[in-house]
């Protein structure tokens, strides 16, 4: 049996295989953060395509935490039924469904990628005041307002409330987004966090918000359901985060009930990233070895044989595919054929097996 198509048990959740859909923003919310027909079609296609776990895109815990006006959300109980439509269908296809809870911080309120415009939306165009650890902006974006200590202390509650809604919406996994230069990453990195209160300064203080968010989410997320965290293991910049710095933080997350780390890199600031096949996999291996937590690896993993070897080498416990899954929603079905593995096919598609 191919390792890619072995199930993975996390708490009481049995994920049928280790090829997962990475969270990839669709910027296509119908209105007010509601997922619509696009999301049903997008995630439904990947569920019938054989992915064992689908992690829904960055889903805002508050309207001001949206990356764009077109982001989905879970900041209101009115979002629950719209998401339930998606999770019910994907579950019927045998896939498990996760959601990435997010706050974009100083990178919020921007034009969506294909608009031809860059930077922060003006209030005239529907933008809003953004927030961050301080008033230091992401290059090319509007300066945020630095959060007060009381406002920072309230963020874990916002994540926990969104997690409660995620449970009601039928999600099997919650992933806390602490990567790619968004709010929790902004607090973690010394390159963006220059606060002088208990949420800034030392590595311990910079990690405080992420640890508090994990505790708050675990406190309301059902005990039998797994909790993930996505991190950027390196900022790719001198003086920024690196896997050796982050491994102790990940171990602390494990003691607070986190079950897996989804490992990515970069996004805090423009940086000279050394891109190549599997370029983020060594960071996954190091976090896995040093923290003792399972990991998912991502980043230019493009062939079934390459993905299989990552698991054989114990560099990760699962593979999270982003862009390849956008190109081919049936990537796992094709991979199973190449690796001679048995995998569930929707009965409607068996004639094409």
Which features does this protein show?
eight-stranded parallel barrel, globular, 12 strands, 33% helix, 353 residues, two-stranded antiparallel sheet
Characterization of the model:
The protein is of the alpha/beta class. It contains ten helices and twelve strands. It has helices at residues 37-48, 80-92, 149-168, 183-188, 203-220, 243-255, 281-291, 304-312, 323-327, 331-338, and strands at residues 8-10, 13-15, 19-21, 53-60, 96-102, 131-132, 145-146, 173-178, 227-232, 260-264, 295-297, 318-321. It has an eight-stranded parallel barrel with strand order 3-4-5-8-9-10-11-12, surrounded by six helices. Strand 11, helix 8 (304-312) and strand 12 form a beta-alpha-beta unit. Helix 1 packs parallel to helix 2 (80-92) and helix 6 crosses helix 7. The two termini are 19 Å apart. The mean pLDDT is 97.
How many H/I helical runs?
Answer: 10
Radius of gyration from the alpha-carbon trace, in angstroms: 19 Å
Q: How would you classify the quaternary structure?
A: single chain
Largest sheet: 8 strands, parallel, barrel
Strand content: 5-15%
Q: Structural class of the helices, strands and pairings?
A: alpha/beta
* Element pattern in H and E: EEEHEHEEEHEHHEHEHEHEHH
Task: Give the end-to-end Cα distance, rounded to a whole number of Å.
Answer: 19 Å
> Averaging pLDDT over every residue, what do you get?
97
Q: List the uncertain runs.
A: none
Which strand order does the major sheet show?
Answer: 3-4-5-8-9-10-11-12
How many beta strands in the DSSP annotation? 12
Helix content: 25-40%
Shape: globular
């Amino acid at each position: 049996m191919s390792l890619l198509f072995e199930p993975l048990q996390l708490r009481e959740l049995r994920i049928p295989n280790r090829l997962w859909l990475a969270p990839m923003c669709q910027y296509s919310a119908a209105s007010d953060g509601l997922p619509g027909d696009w999301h049903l079609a997008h995630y439904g296609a990947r569920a019938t395509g054989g992915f064992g776990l689908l992690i829904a895109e960055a889903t805002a815990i508050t309207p001001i935490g949206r990356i764009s006006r077109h982001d989905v959300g879970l900041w209101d109980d009115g979002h629950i039924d719209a998401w339930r439509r998606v999770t019910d269908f994907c579950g019927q296809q045998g896939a498990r469904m996760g959601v990435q809870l997010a706050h974009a911080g100083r990178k919020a309120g921007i034009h969506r990628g294909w608009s031809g415009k860059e930077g922060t939306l003006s209030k005239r165009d529907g933008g809003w005041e953004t927030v961050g650890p301080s008033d230091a902006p992401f290059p090319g974006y509007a300066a945020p307002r630095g959060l007060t200590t009381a406002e920072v202390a309230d963020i874990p509650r916002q994540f926990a409330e969104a997690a409660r809604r995620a449970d009601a919406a039928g999600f099997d996994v919650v992933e806390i987004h602490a990567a790619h230069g968004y709010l929790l990453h902004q607090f973690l990195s010394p390159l963006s966090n220059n606060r002088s209160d208990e949420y800034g300064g030392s590595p311990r203080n910079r990690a405080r918000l992420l640890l508090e968010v994990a505790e708050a989410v675990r406190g309301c997320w059902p005990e039998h359901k797994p909790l993930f965290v996505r991190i950027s293991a390196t900022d790719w910049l001198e003086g920024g985060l690196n896997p050796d710095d982050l491994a102790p933080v990940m171990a602390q997350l494990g003691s607070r009930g986190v079950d897996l780390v989804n490992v990515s890199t970069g996004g805090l600031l423009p940086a000279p990233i050394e891109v190549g096949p599997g370029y983020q996999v060594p960071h996954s291996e190091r976090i896995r070895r040093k923290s003792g937590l399972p990991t998912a690896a991502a980043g230019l993993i493009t062939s079934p044989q390459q993905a299989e070897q990552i698991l054989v080498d114990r560099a990760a416990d699962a593979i999270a595919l982003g862009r390849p899954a956008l190109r081919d929603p049936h990537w796992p079905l094709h991979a199973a054929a190449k690796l001679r593995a048995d995998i569930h096919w929707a009965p409607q598609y068996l004639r094409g097996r």
